[in-house]
Amino acid sequence: MLLDFTVENFRSIKGAETLSAVAASKSKAKASNSESRRRVKSDDEIAEPFHVEGWDIDVLPVIAIFGANASGKSNVLQALDYLLECMARGMFRGDDERTSPLIPFKLDKLNEQNPSYFNLRTAFNGTIYTYSLVLNGNRIFLERLSYALSSTKRERLLFSRTWNESTQRFDWKNGSDFSGAHNQLAESLEDHEPFISILSRLKIEVVKPLVQWIMTSQGGRYWGQQEIDSSFLNSLWNAEPTNLGLTGVLERTKNLLLKFDTGLDDIEIRKTESDKKSYQLYAVHKTGDSSYISWKFEEESMGTQKLFGLVYRMQLMFFAGSFLMIADELGSNIHPNITREIVRLFHSPKTNPKRTQLIFTSHDNTLQRNNLLRRDQIWFTQKRLDQSTELYPLSDFKVRNDLAIDKAYLDGRFRAVPFISDEDEQSTSLEEKDKDNA
């Protein structure tokens, strides 16, 4: 499970900003009479967190980030995605294609020349792992991995390496768990290659849960669209570990789409006649005379296509036990009632028994109302005066349980909303500027 993530000097993020999935401490205050009358739910009634075995830590199943356009919401997700990519597949150079290239904060000359910093804390089977990475587009300057057992609570080093500018080599420190023949691999690492990216090839018991989390999290990206091409259809046909075919993940996806009132009666995958190794997705509809008609799925509305991609990916993660899903603009082209239901599916132990977490951004402030999200699940981004991103949770504010958060948000009570200048003032300012230049 993801505990928290810190990033510094990445795109619009200048200083260190931390996104935490650790649940806030429970309030001991009793509900007021007005809250009782309105049947306001407690945080745990809205979303019961996952407990970290052996620690006094609870982890949230869902984190939602809201904020104005260009405030840095997507950059927070892209920073996390970049780190996970590095951990799973190694650092990517400038000539490689990737979802989130390493771009420093460019509005400050000093930051543009400095490396970027990432720190990730995760927890599995009562063990907390902490991974740090400092790098620029050419090399790694620091890489460190440590862990703490629930029995001792003491942090133990697995490995660390720090770039030594004078010797032009890395200074290594290894814990007792890393004393073995695999240390020879350190000599073959490139300056830009994270050591953690090769751990999946090594038999080191203490890091197995972390490596599994890293690898399964790669399938959890949803950037607002899903291309229904041949590779995607092949994954639909072959992805299920137990060979359940259409009765597995696709069947659950279809059932949800029917529940969401998309007008579909069925979804079919058929092999194409021209190429038996390729597949085509079809939407099946019921006509007025109770007969059936089908057409290619790309003829469906863009909203239905995007919803299909999102729901299928989500169901696949629930089924396979993937640990993290990252979704940018979750409610894009999707009705708010459906988005709310998707959030509830992640909250529910029944539909999400393997504890998959969801982190998403959205402009849909209706998701902030009616006991859908806890106060510690709602985060905001806003631009500082230097145009850098500030990230902070709603729980930083003292708000009543019965406050209409969505209305307070639009009123600017939590900041994180765009400042829209007056049109008349802007016109006057431009006219004065033209006179000065005349």
UniProtKB/TrEMBL annotation:
Q: Which GO terms describe its molecular function?
A: ATP binding; ATP hydrolysis activity
Alphabetized SUPFAM superfamilies for the sequence:
P-loop containing nucleoside triphosphate hydrolases (SSF52540)
Q: Which Pfam families match?
A: AAA_21
InterPro entries the record matches: ATPase_AAA_core (IPR003959), P-loop_NTPase (IPR027417)
List keywords of the entry alphabetically. Answer: ATP-binding, Nucleotide-binding
Occurrences of domain ATPase AAA-type core (ranges): 63-367
Do the record's keywords include Iron? no
Record's Gene3D superfamilies?
A: P-loop containing nucleotide triphosphate hydrolases (3.40.50.300)
**Name used for this protein in its record:** ATP-binding protein
Q: Which organism is it from?
A: Pseudanabaena frigida
